[in-house]
Design a protein that fits this description.
alpha+beta, Nucleotidyltransferase, domain 5, Actin, Chain A, domain 4, Substrate Binding Domain Of DNAk, Chain A, domain 1, seven-stranded mixed β-sheet
């Protein structure tokens, strides 16, 4: 029987779990984990230390190896890489580490990290299956490894809500190269709703707040049993629907930056030179001041030469307030609720689930208890809910999902003399859609021999909305500033071109092409392109791009 595994690849820490027949269980790979002290969770630091380009230490050993780098500039690229997930999400070929003269890309980091993790998982599986093996049994185990037995072949990986489709595609591609045959992805807050340990045999509406090291994701999930089988507790008999989701690139590392800034403000000189040192200590200070069980009411930076900079818990709280942490959480929560106001209202939420290490920051739980009442706010699974839920999903729990970003066609605005975006798919659209879902008409210029339809994924990049404006033709358009375009837009099919024969006749008032769009059950945008001049289809039900 095939084992279903799951990986929650986090910016700061990674977890791995598997479905064990009746429930999901987090796995402790003892040689890699660094146990979280308050909850004793087996966290694998998302760190990798390269020994050569294809072999590396990951997890706790990688962090231990950084002592070799003592005295080097912590801002310079070296053999140790952390937070490579952020770069993988938007620029996978960008260097995040360096070994000698060789630059190492985020994609290569992720590939080697996952290779080492999957190999450790396979070794764990073989060892736990027979911990007291004879020499002959060890030889048989090696033979099973050679035959690919015990390797991870069925895997679910989690992705942040506000990540773009290229990030999900990177994870799928890397996993397949590493021998995973069945690879799926699920949004992190949706996985958290499944893995939190609530009774899902009755319909529930859940608000999930997933606040981790690099991202802040919110989602509203409706869980309900499959029709006609309310008593069964197997994952295949239940389903969930994602009603709304929002996300920001905003997490524990953001707080670390604020703490480092606080320390710099206390310095009389050399702020720029000492900031890397302060930043390297900021995470530990954050944990000290967030731990309610801690006896100390303050923490400190230790400077070179023995000096120190103190920061009290009250100063930390004031810093979080001043930098707008609570305001951001409240605004994003209200925006997420607004996105599904037609489906449910705030009073219909059954529970608010807090997930991720950053929900342990002081004042965060208090904020949500104030907004929703203490009886609805749950916080007992801050680290493991996501990875457990992903294992449950991989074992057969069905999830009806939505499109997370706007999708638009890039067109040229003659009046503005620059590109603009014509919205085609609105975020929060459920799929599959009716056929056709959208119909658009396009004219072509005189002598034009090719027609391009660049489909772009448009995120919010930290904003709560974008100023789409409706025009006389009924369509919505957005003209970004230069910086907005770079932050918000990812073009998915730049090289796709359609040949026109005969070329365009130049009558721009008359449409040449009619394009019918739909979204299929596999989240692909599908198009049928009809040439109105020749009265025939040029493409029929052709997949254009995969949506996120």
């Amino acid at each position: 029987m095939e084992t279903h595994w799951s990986i929650d690849l986090g910016t700061t820490n990674t977890l791995i779990a598997k479905w064990v027949g009746t429930h999901a269980a987090t796995i402790a790979l003892e040689e890699l984990v660094d146990y979280e002290p308050a909850w004793h969770t087996p966290l694998i630091p998302s760190a990798i230390y390269f020994q050569d380009l294809e072999n590396a230490m990951i997890g706790r050993p990688a962090l231990s190896a950084r002592e070799i780098l003592h005295g080097q500039d912590p801002t310079a690229l070296g053999p140790l890489a952390r937070s490579f997930k952020k770069t993988l999400a938007r620029a996978s070929q960008q260097a995040v580490a360096q070994l000698g003269s060789e630059s190492i890309s985020a994609r290569h980091c992720a590939t080697v990290f996952l290779k080492e993790l999957l190999e450790a998982t396979a070794a764990y599986e073989r060892q736990t299956a027979d911990p007291h093996r004879t020499r002959m049994q060890r030889l048989m185990s090696a033979l099973r490894w050679w035959r690919k037995e015990g390797q991870v072949t069925s895997l679910t990986m989690t992705v942040p809500v506000e990540s773009y489709e290229p990030y999900r595609a990177e994870l799928v591609s890397i996993s397949k190269k590493l021998g995973v045959k069945d690879i799926r992805t699920i949004d992190e807050p949706v996985a958290a709703a499944l893995g939190y340990g609530l009774d899902l045999s009755e319909e529930k509406h859940l608000l999930v707040v997933d606040f981790g090291g690099g991202t802040l994701d919110l989602a509203i999930v409706r869980t309900h049993p499959a029709a006609g089988d309310r008593q069964s507790r197997g994952p295949g008999t239940h389903r969930a629907s994602l009603l709304a989701a929002r996300g920001l690139i905003y997490g524990g590392e953001t707080i670390d930056e604020w703490i480092a800034d606080f320390g710099c403000e206390k310095l009389r000189a050399h702020q720029n030179a000492l900031r890397p040192l302060l930043l390297s200590q900021a995470e530990a200070i954050k944990k000290d001041l967030s731990n309610k069980a801690s006896v100390a009411d303050s923490s400190y930076f230790l400077l070179q030469g023995g000096g120190r900079i103190d920061i009290t818990r009250q100063e930390f709280l004031d810093l979080l307030e001043k930098r707008g942490l609570y305001r951001t959480l409240e605004s994003l929560t209200e925006a997420t609720l607004d996105d599904c106001a037609r489906e449910i209202n705030e009073s219909q939420l059954d529970a608010v689930l807090l997930v991720g290490g950053s929900t342990l920051l002081p004042g965060v739980r208090d904020l949500f208890e104030k907004m929703f009442g203490a009886q609805r706010v749950h916080y007992w699974e801050p680290f493991e809910a996501v990875v457990k839920g992903a294992a449950i999903y991989g074992a057969g729990f069905s999830v009806d999902q939505i499109v997370h970003h706007d999708y638009a066609i890039r067109v040229y605005n003659d009046a503005e003399q620059r590109p603009e975006y014509e919205r085609l798919v609105r975020r929060s659209t459920g799929y599959p859609t009716p056929k056709p879902f959208e119909v658009r008409y396009y004219s072509v210029a005189e002598g034009q021999t090719t027609f391009r339809l660049p489909v772009c994924e448009v995120g919010y990049a930290g904003q709560l909305s974008l100023p789409w404006s409706r025009r006389m033709n009924g369509n919505e358009y957005w003209i970004p500033s230069g910086s907005e375009e770079g932050e918000c837009v990812v073009t998915l099919n730049e090289g796709d071109a359609l040949k026109l024969s005969p070329p365009g006749g130049g009558d721009l008032a008359r449409a040449r092409l009619r394009i019918e769009f739909t979204i299929d059950e596999n989240r692909f945008l599908v198009a049928t392109i009809h040439d109105l001049q020749k009265q025939r289809d040029l493409r029929t039900d052709e997949r254009v791009v995969k949506l996120r």
